[in-house]
Each structure stands twice: as C-alpha cells, then as structure tokens.
C-alpha cells in the first residue's frame, strides 16, 4: 500500500451541447462535445482509519459538504463496495475549478478520488473498470477520468474520443454565485413547452465542431460553439448576456455558457488574445481565468 498519492483531474467545457426531451425518469439524453482544460483539481490521499476530505484553494468555500454527500466520499465508499477494500484515507483537495459553474469540478474531484484510492489501496483496477464506477457517480465523471476531447452521449457518460489538433486558448469568466444544474434543465423544459418546441429524443453532435477540432481551427470552432442550456441559463441569470457581449467586444472569437452555467467560456485566437481578453474582463470586475485545452484526464502526479 502506498503511503501518499497525489492526483490531478481536469475541469471541462461543453463545446457543443444538444439536449433531448425529458425521459420518464426525468433525465435527458444529450449529445455533447467535452474538452478538458488545464484548470484542474489536485487531490492528495494518505492512509487513515476512516474516510475524510478537506478542501482548500482558490475555489474552495465553507459551503462545501465534507460528509457522505460529497462526491469524494461517495467515490471512496463505492470503491470499497465494489472491491471489498477495507482501507481508509484522509484526502485533501486543492480546488481550482469553480463550484456549481458548469465545469465539472465535483466530477473531477470524484475522478481524482477513484484514481488516488485505486493506487493508495493497491487495487489495480484498470481504466475501463474505473470508467464504469465513475458513471455510477455522475454523468461527467467518466470524462474527467478520460480527459482530452470526447463526444458524450446518453446522459453524457458514453464516451468516444475525438481527434484534436493543436491547442485552444480559453478565458473563463467565473460568476460569484453558482447555478443549479437541475434548475437549468427544468427551465429549459418549461421554455420549450411554452414555445411548443419538441426536441429530438436522441440528439446528435454537430459535425462542424468535430471538423474544427480536427483542423485545430479556433475561428471555425468559435462559429460552431453551441449550448441548448444557454437560453435557460440566461433566463435564470440575465446578466450573463451582458457578459457574453462584453467578451465579444473585447476580442473573443466566440463565447458560450459552459454546461449548465454560470461560467462563461470565451475562445481566443491565441495566447496574446487570451491575455488581452483576461485583462479586459478583470478591468470590468469579473473573475477571469485563462486555460488551455485539451488537457489530460485524471492521473497520478505524485
């Protein structure tokens, strides 16, 4: 058994998000293109008699639960149940991915816990088994394990890697207050019903996004960015529309609400463009972070 392990797991963006109609269980099938970004969570695990987690770092808040409702503890308990492991762990997470911001920070934490405890407890589970367990924890967890760029279907947990050329430069405008993912989906359903829209039961990924990623073309990718959840997020948080307009006025090639929001992701042409946009958003009193993509999935770093 290892004495201490450290794992880094990435946040994500949804470059394209098509949402189907609600199913009887209330969930929606989606067709999305995930991209992992360099903004990442870092989890350290050490042997202990019980299971515990603590949070620190720029995105940590006192509101984060540290009991059995937290995805880190749930991941540990799931590993125990699946393997019969009896070990404990004391875990610490340095949070850099915004909380409730549509960037999968909690999912990254869960993925990091799976990888860390697999190593700490000497379980030797392969990637495929970890992906299966990750899907039990949440739709975005398998992608946090995989990283890179991938198409996600089903609830987002059925993944197919996407060929990507070059690197993309993003500037992320982080809101002070998060948005509830279930609330955004409910708002989308209500807006569609009011407009008489009947979405596809099984949505498909936009071909233009995949073509832009293969060619490494940020201009083409910016034109293809799309998120069905954006209208609902803007309806719940109208100020996001002003933020999107501000980014475009200051040189962003394109922008969209990431996932269920409220983080807004702006695509820049290059590093200089990203730096300039970050300065402009910061001057307007927004919290603006730079990130490159694609990034690796959850992996041991120490």
TrEMBL record:
Residues 70-148 form the GHMP kinase N-terminal domain. ATP binds at residues 98-108. The keyword Nucleotide-binding applies. Keywords: ATP-binding, Isoprene biosynthesis, Kinase, Nucleotide-binding, Transferase. The active site is at residues 12, 140. It holds the Pfam family GHMP_kinases_C. SUPFAM superfamilies: GHMP Kinase, C-terminal domain (SSF55060), Ribosomal protein S5 domain 2-like (SSF54211). Pathway: Isoprenoid biosynthesis; isopentenyl diphosphate biosynthesis via DXP pathway; isopentenyl diphosphate from 1-deoxy-D-xylulose 5-phosphate: step 3/6. It comes from the Bacteria. Catalyzes the phosphorylation of the position 2 hydroxy group of 4-diphosphocytidyl-2C-methyl-D-erythritol. Belongs to the GHMP kinase family. IspE subfamily. This is 4-diphosphocytidyl-2-C-methyl-D-erythritol kinase. It comes from Amnibacterium endophyticum. The gene is ispE.
């Amino acid at each position: 058994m290892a004495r201490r392990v450290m794992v880094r797991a990435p946040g994500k963006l949804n470059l394209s998000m098509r949402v189907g109609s609600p199913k009887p269980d209330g969930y929606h099938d989606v067709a999305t293109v995930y991209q992992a970004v360099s903004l990442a969570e870092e989890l350290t695990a050490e042997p202990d008699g019980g299971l515990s987690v603590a949070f620190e770092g720029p995105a940590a808040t006192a509101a984060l639960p540290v009991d059995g409702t937290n995805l880190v503890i749930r991941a540990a308990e799931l590993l125990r149940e699946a393997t019969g492991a009896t070990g404990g762990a004391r875990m610490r997470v340095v949070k850099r991915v915004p909380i409730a911001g549509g960037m999968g920070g909690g999912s990254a934490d869960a993925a990091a816990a799976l990888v860390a405890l697999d190593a700490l407890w000497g379980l030797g589970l392969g990637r495929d088994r970890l992906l299966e367990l990750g899907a039990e924890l949440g739709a975005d967890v398998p992608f946090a394990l995989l990283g890179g760029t991938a198409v996600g279907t089903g609830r987002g947990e059925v993944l197919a890697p996407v060929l990507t050329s070059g690197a993309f430069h993003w500037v992320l405008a982080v809101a002070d207050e998060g948005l509830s993912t279930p609330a955004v989906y409910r708002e989308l359903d209500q807006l569609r019903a009011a407009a008489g829209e009947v979405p596809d039961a099984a949505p498909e990924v936009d071909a233009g996004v995949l073509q832009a990623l293969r060619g490494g073309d940020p201009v083409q990718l910016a034109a293809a960015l799309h998120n069905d959840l954006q209208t609902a997020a803007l309806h719940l948080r109208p100020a996001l529309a002003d933020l999107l307009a501000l980014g475009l006025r200051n040189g962003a090639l394109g922008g969209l609400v990431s996932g269920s929001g409220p983080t807004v992701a702006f695509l820049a042409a290059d590093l200089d463009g990203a730096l300039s946009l970050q300065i402009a958003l910061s001057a307007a009193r927004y919290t603006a972070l730079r990130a490159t993509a694609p990034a690796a999935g959850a992996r041991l770093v120490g």
